[in-house]
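Both lines are quoted verbatim for reference:

——
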Amino acid sequence: MRFQLHSGQSAGFKGGMASAVIVLALTIVPAFAFVAGVISGWASPVLAWVVRLVILAGLWTLVVWFLMWLLRSAAWLEGTVLVRRGGFRTRRCDLAAAPRVVLDATPETQTVNGVTSRTGRHLPRLTAWDAHTGRAVTFLLIDPAARRWLDPPKLRALADAILAGPRPEPLAAQAWQAAQGLRAMSADPTGRIR
């Protein structure tokens, strides 16, 4: 049974951003490639076409990557398995079998005019290490569309999934602390990002 945690940005935001990116890509990308080709064409016509093709391929790759991330990002629980889907890959981790589960926070950043800086707020984050691969699956506990914590039933479902499996000590105590942190978050009526 699939329990949806979030489906990325809101449908309106996805539609608006996708439309804007496509319009910009259809107008600016070819124009930029044309101008770069003209400039490099002063040296050689063959070089001009190579430059145009490289620039077009690179910029279209960025456009496709952004659209895939925007339209595909989602997370859900399948029983006790946390599934986090990005633009091109899907990560899975059985929270009940994960040898290590950590609940912490990461600083929020924003980029303005090409400069990235911290906002002073922290985003709650759940990190679980897969029992089979040993890779960490990191999941921000926020709803991207609402810019707030996940709803209480979703946080409790994550806590229940963590506690569904046995672990040896001290890993069991660590998992219990993460689950208790999730339950405390679900009891907070504001659910705001601090």
Summary: Residues 73-187 form one domain. The chain has two domains: 11-72, 73-187. The radius of gyration is 22 Å. The mean pLDDT is 79.
